[in-house]
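Intended use. Records such as the ABC transporter ATP-binding protein entry shown here are meant for training and evaluating sequence-to-structure methods. They are not intended to support clinical decisions.
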Amino acid sequence: MLKIEDLTVEVNEKTLLHDVNLEVKKGYTNVLFGPNGAGKTALMRTLMGFSEYKVVKGQILFNEEDITSLPVDERARLGLGIMMQRPPDMSGIKLRDLVRVASKGKKNPEDLAEKLDMKRFLDRDVNVGFSGGEIKRSELLQLEAQSPSLYLLDEPESGVDLVSIEQVGMTIKGLLEEGVDCPGESCKRGKSALIITHTGRILDYVKADRGYILCNGTVMCSGNPLKMLEEIKNRGYEECIRCRLTM
Ligand SMILES: Nc1ncnc2c1ncn2[C@@H]1O[C@H](COP(=O)(O)OP(=O)(O)OP(=O)(O)O)[C@@H](O)[C@H]1O
């Protein structure tokens, strides 16, 4: 589904990512860990095609197609969708209209918003004055409307209170299992995801298949995501950087 090969990325001639290799297979949910400033958000934004991130080496393959040079809208059309860590305010654009466009007019914004307790936000400008948790739910609403095949989720639980985390977690679980008629261990989910998490709270709701640790702009390790999380909680990133984890 997604294959990143030797990816090196610059912003304003500063190298943020170098020689990144990472893969998300169809139906898999992979997790990206890493300390502050490691380049995790830069990687997500590069994958989505934000124009300030210049790929100077390597490639991004999506369903075996080279998408490295494609603009954001074409990547979205192919099935990539992103939940941003800090999405911009969109003055003058109502959430209802964005949801309608994201679903190509196929889904009713009211029905989608009902589930996420977002009906009262539909006629507000997107993100303007939204709280941290409301922004996350708004992002999820847009993703649910778009229904991409690969979800790029940048810290979905950050800023979400302890009660709402269950709503966010269960919504993401539902999105990833969309279209699957045999949920459980015996069959893979239909949708794929790459999730950035610091706390790992989201993994209480979503089963992760593989973890990656990004440090100083490159992938240092990959392996069992829950073991990685435990290791990070106990010993920080040092041991991971030295790749002493049991893979
Ligand atoms: N447009 C930019 N211009 C210059 N530097 C940038 C730009 N965007 C990101 N950076 C720098 O790149 C580094 C990686 O940033 P990034 O947001 O990807 O980190 P992160 O791993 O997501 O961190 P966090 O866990 O704190 O969210 C940081 O030092 C950041 O300041």
